[in-house]
Specification:
The structure is a homodimer of 369-residue chains. The first copy, chain A, is of the alpha+beta class and 369 residues long. Chain A has six helices and 25 strands. A twelve-stranded antiparallel sheet of chain A has the order 14-11-12-13-25-24-23-18-21-20-19-22.
Chain lengths: 369, 369
């Protein structure tokens, strides 16, 4: 095999497929990138058995062939090559030579015979989104998936299409994040749970252009994302997702409108008095025109007032400040509205159209203080 | 005590004195910044008993006083305050209130009675340098001090004034870095060893302006740096520094001139084949017009030619690539000249005026390969 690339093309493609190279595996072949130039195109593939990525690479095929090369070494070499044409060639013993300018690297490769190719999946109805929209949907919800795998469904996100609306939901038992967008086009109803890891990696690869599209296909067990010259295939998480609608409610006793930036900066300041792992709540006291935020910890105390406009009852309630920060960070509105019932019931941060809903459970506070 | 600062002034000064706050100490008072507004100015002091920093802070004294406040907490609070006036006030129980806009922090402070003030040192002859020059001198030599303290003198740098030339020397047993500058003015001869830690911290505080000065004073046991509104006092390392002149030699068998950037990038590429802690040398073979660099490791091999101009014998020699990289990174010349004797003797990278000399010991290589 002998291939010639421009360094920038090679680097871009290696970076894309790196996202599905497992850091630890019992199958050493999966630590490789498969370079397949046996047909008319050059294709790079990686696969950690949950997530697989294939990308077509711009380059010249001087001699056809296939080889699997250790992904980490290939990536480090390519990164440090000078900005010139890069030649990758192999000999009969699967030793790969990477030459660029006067530099020549030799590294042992593998035949690629035992490489795990991506599953072949029948593509049916295709959901089309802009790269920007998909990337935003992920960013605005991914933080509230659960980190540990006690409940596998919580480590993924629900993607639900109903009545041509796409709803993305994540929850971890303490909070729920929901984003909705109207789809242009007609789609059949559909419900799948996509692994959080897949969404994280996809979001890193997507350039996030408004005018570039992603095509999404769902099968019973897989989801496929196609964009630019890249295909990402991921397993879905099996099982029935939580009935989120039952947890939502439109009743409230207190409704507060506040400047988002001011609210976020204030909570952010308060957290410096809380040591990692220490679960000090931020205490929020809502009066007619003012919200008083307060935190007391072993380090010291902090108090700050924020102007609000409010309707309904006064209330005293405590929250994990991190949960508020996570939600506020991904809301683009200048003013946000918070709906509260009582000090034991979840609060909702949502807009009028409910294009976003962030539900956060309160923390028990000693009201006497 | 009651003081009012602009946030930017306060933040700048806190950042400066933070550099001498010890991360671990048996004297908790040293984890504090001493805020002294007992006289007509506001002065912040920190001291880890090796290194002490005092800086005058712009601010308004509404009520005089002294307090010691935990440095880390103060620094984190100040960093996150909004961009407005900050008031620091204390009550009779040494509780400090920090208010800014509507935010109010309360944190416990200390009287500062048992704070270790900086030693009073008689200032005699003053060495004046631009901030830029001092910062550069440190950057260009600090990497070759020894990290471990087996030999304390190796953890510092020699500052030697002789015949109105300032020479800065560092060495770690495998290499030597020397920088010389001519001083404008007349100075008495002098030799001191300044702790590497002090130089590292000074270099972070110095803004590095060409047109701002640093005044340096030496006593028998201390060095003082004065610049802007800041005074840094450090102990010196005691003992007789190594006789570096005996290790230098102007004899050579091979003299090579090479493009610095090309040489550096090539060595940098080669190091990716060397795992951390693995001591693979880079093998350099010098012929009449070409230098061949080669590295062989468990990961793979790399070979690259670089054009050179050479006089003297051909030579095959091995080096720790990191030592070459460290020296090349801080040389600003486009072309560098390397002087070699044989494969067991140190090489010298130096300019004609010897304003810099980098000596690097070779590594034993199996010449048969």
């Amino acid at each position: 095999m002998k291939l010639v690339f421009q360094k920038a093309d090679l680097l871009k493609s290696v970076n894309i497929v790196m996202k599905a190279v497992p850091s630890r595996t019992t199958m050493p072949i999966l630590e490789c990138i498969l370079i397949d130039a046996s047909a008319g195109v050059i294709k790079f593939t990686s696969n950690d058995m949950e997530l697989g990525i294939e990308t077509i690479v711009s380059g010249m095929i001087i001699e056809k062939g296939i080889i699997a090369i250790d992904a980490k070494i290939l990536s480090e070499i390519v990164r440090r090559l000078p900005d010139a044409d890069v030649t990758i060639s192999t000999d009969a013993n699967y030793v790969a030579s990477i030459t660029c300018g006067k530099a020549k690297f030799s590294i042992p490769g593998k035949s690629g015979e035992d490489f795990a190719y991506l599953p072949l999946i029948e593509k049916n109805e295709c959901l089309t989104l802009s790269q920007f929209t998909l990337k935003e949907l992920i960013r605005q919800t991914i933080f509230s998936i659960a980190a540990n795998e006690n409940n596998q469904l919580m480590t993924g996100e629900l993607f639900e299409i109903r009545d041509n609306i796409l709803k993305v939901v994540s929850l971890d038992g303490h909070r729920i994040a929901i984003r909705k967008i109207e789809l242009s086009g007609t789609y059949s109803d559909r419900k799948v749970v996509v692994p959080g890891k897949t969404l994280n990696e996809i979001s890193k690869i997507l350039q996030g252009d408004m005018d570039k599209q992603v095509s999404v296909f769902f099968s019973d067990n897989h989801v496929i994302f196609e964009f630019d010259d890249t295909v990402v295939v991921s397993r879905l998480i099996e099982g029935e997702y939580f009935r989120v609608d039952q947890m939502l409610s439109s009743d409230y006793e207190t409704k507060v409108t506040v400047n988002k930036k001011e609210f976020l900066e204030c909570i952010d300041r308060s957290t410096l008095l809380v040591k990692e792992g220490d679960k000090k709540p931020i205490i929020i006291e809502i009066n007619d025109t003012m919200m008083e935020l307060q935190i007391n910890s072993a380090i010291g105390s902090m108090k700050e007032d924020i102007d609000i406009s409010k309707s309904g009852k006064d209330i005293l309630i405590g929250f994990n400040p991190k949960f508020l920060i996570d939600a506020l960070k991904v809301i683009d509105d200048e003013e946000i509205t918070i709906y509260l019932v009582n000090s034991k019931a979840p609060c909702f941060i949502k807009d009028e159209k409910e294009s976003y809903i962030y539900l956060i459970l309160p923390v028990n506070i000693n009201v006497s203080r």
